[in-house]
Structures are given as C-alpha cells and as structure tokens.
Design a protein that fits this description.
By secondary structure, the protein is mainly alpha-helical. It has twelve helices and seven strands.
C-alpha cells in the first residue's frame, strides 16, 4: 500500500453547460497574467510607462503560442501525421503540447514587433519580463498535471505522481513528477534573476539571458528523466541538445554583452519621464517587489540666475541713497543755522 503520492486529477476538463473549462488552458492564461503583471511593475521601476508591457504582450503572447505549437508539432509530427492519426489534432492546442523553445523564439519576434512600434529597445523589455516568464512557466507546467503527461521514470518516492490514465499508450503507475520538478525549478530561476538584477544591475538583455541559461541548465536534467516518446540524437533526447545549445549561446551573450555594454540602459522608454503621472507614483514602492531598482532621477537643473535677488539689492541701494541725501540735508541745515 502506498503511503503517500501526488494524485492525478480524474479529468482535465470541466463542462460549464456547453462550454468546456480546461485545466491546461487555465494554467496558461494565469501564467500569462502573472508574467504581464510582474513585467509591468519591473518596467515601471526601470522608468517605463504603465501599460507598455501589456501592449507589447498583445504581440508577444499570440506569437509565442503559435511558435510553441509549431515546435511541438514539428518535433513530434508522428503524433499528428502518422497512420491512424488525425492532422486536425495539430490545431487543438488546449489538449497540450507547447514547446518552450518555439514559444520563446516566436514570442521574442512578436515582442520585437511591438517594441519597434513603440520605439523601445527589445533587450530592456526582455530584462523586465524575464522573471515573469519564468513564473508563467512554473504555473503553466501544472497544465501537464491536469493532462497526466510529461512524467518521468517509475519511482516509489513519497512524492511520486500517480498516473491513472491509460490513453495514448500511458501505463498507470507511480512516476517522477517531472512537471513539478520543472515548476519548482522555474520558481527558483525567477527568484535568481530578480536577485541578480538587483545585485548586479543587469541590462541590455543580460537578465533575460540569465533566465534562459539557468532554465536550460535545469531543463537538461529534467528532460533526461522523462519517459515520453521523443527523438534521440547520439543517445540524448532532442530537447537535451536544444537545452545545451541554448545554454551555451545565453552564457556567451552574457559575457560579450557585459564587456561591450556594461551597466543598464539610461532610458528604456522615450518620453516616459515627461508624461505618465501614474507611472511616477507607481515607481515608489517597486524595489522590494521586483528587484529592478527604480532608476535615479535626472540631475537637477543648474541653479537659477540671481535675478530674484536683484530687486532687494536695488531697494537696499535706493535706501542707502535716501539716507545719504537726508544726511547731507541735515548737514547743510546745521551749517546754515551756524551762519545765522
């Protein structure tokens, strides 16, 4: 008898009348909201306007979903285009199947379009949203729990995941909850980026690169534990090679960027300092929450000319002149009295 384990939900969808409410979709949606909320706070702390992150997310999120689905369908094409499969299922994103590599790549393309339209540097935007993306991934991984998918090898550990479904080749049993491992790892990645951003004032895309590198490090060993079908190259799963390659690219970017462009961007959103009163008020209490310290205010203008003091000085001179005149008049009067 098993004393402890993580139960799987009996079903991953609830029906509200004719409307299906899917746990996987809810996890994705909640993750997106968290990423936009935290990214907005970090963006304001860096000197940007309220709402800019959400405006650009309108481009980044759809691109990310399309890219994530494309990567999954291409790398697991046999699930949709082999004999006995229905290719229409490739469009059923709510049933699971998003590749983070495609989601980040296409999401970055969408963010670039949005940033270009606003005249905003993409690296600065990426730095602001990096921890939020990691938190979104942590939440999104629970969608795999609802779908009873992407688990690891069999285990008798007390935190084993109990798989009950037998569809699509699943074998009921107790397995490593790799969805939970990755979720916890992503939370750690988000906290690491927030701390490092505060400690080292990361800029020019280095906070985002740190997120990518640290996520890939965890994804490599978590991917190695999974038992679902995947393409292998030289004994390693395709995603292991992808994680390793992206990790090396991210580290290389951090090193080169730190040498060529140290520090942070002085301005992340042109004109933001001139208008948005709400943004100025919101910057006050963000340091503790986001790790992106508010940028220092611009140096005060030079001291105004001493013109306001000219009038008091003129009045003083006039007064001295009047006193001198009165003194001369008194002296003449005294002289006249002496002569008289």
């Amino acid at each position: 008898m098993e004393l402890a384990y993580i139960p799987s939900p009996s079903r991953g969808v609830l029906h509200l009348g004719p409307v299906p409410l899917r746990g996987y979709a809810f996890c994705i949606i909640i993750g997106v909201f968290v990423a936009v909320w935290l990214g907005n706070r970090r963006w304001i702390a860096r000197g940007g306007r309220v709402g800019t992150v959400a405006d650009i997310a309108v481009w980044a999120v759809p691109f990310g979903l399309i890219g994530g689905r494309l990567y999954h369908v291409i790398t697991d094409y046999e699930l949709y285009f082999s004999e006995g499969r229905d290719w229409v299922d490739a469009f059923k994103i709510w049933e699971g199947g998003l590749g983070i590599w495609g989601a980040i790549a296409f999401g970055a393309l969408g963010a670039w379009i949005g940033c270009r339209r606003r005249g905003i540097p993409l690296p600065a935007y990426a730095d602001a949203v990096a921890p939020g993306i990691a938190f979104a991934q942590a939440i999104g991984r629970w969608g795999n729990w609802f779908n009873q998918e992407l688990y690891g090898k069999e285990t008798d550990l007390p935190w084993a995941l109990h798989i009950t479904s037998s569809t699509d080749g699943r074998v009921p049993g107790y397995y490593h909850p790799t969805f939970l491992y990755e979720s916890l790892w992503c939370v750690g990645v988000a906290l690491l980026v927030i701390w490092a951003d505060r400690r080292f004032k990361l800029g020019h895309g280095r906070a985002f690169a740190l997120y990518v590198a640290s996520y890939c490090a965890g994804r490599f060993w978590i991917e190695y534990m999974r038992v679902d079908e995947a393409h292998h190259i030289l004994g390693l799963r395709l995603n292991n090679w992808t994680a390793l390659l992206v990790l090396l690219l991210a580290v290389t970017y951090i090193v080169i960027s730190a040498r060529k462009r140290p520090g942070r961007e002085p301005v992340v959103e042109p004109g933001a300092a001139d208008g948005d009163g709400d943004g100025a008020e919101a910057k006050v209490d963000l340091e503790k929450d986001t790790g992106a310290e508010p940028e220092a205010d611009a140096e005060p203008d030079a001291e105004p000319d001493a013109e306001p003091d000219a009038e008091p000085e003129a009045e003083a001179d006039a007064k001295d002149g009047e006193d001198a005149k009165d003194g001369e008049g008194a002296k003449d009067g005294a002289g006249s009295a002496k002569k008289g």
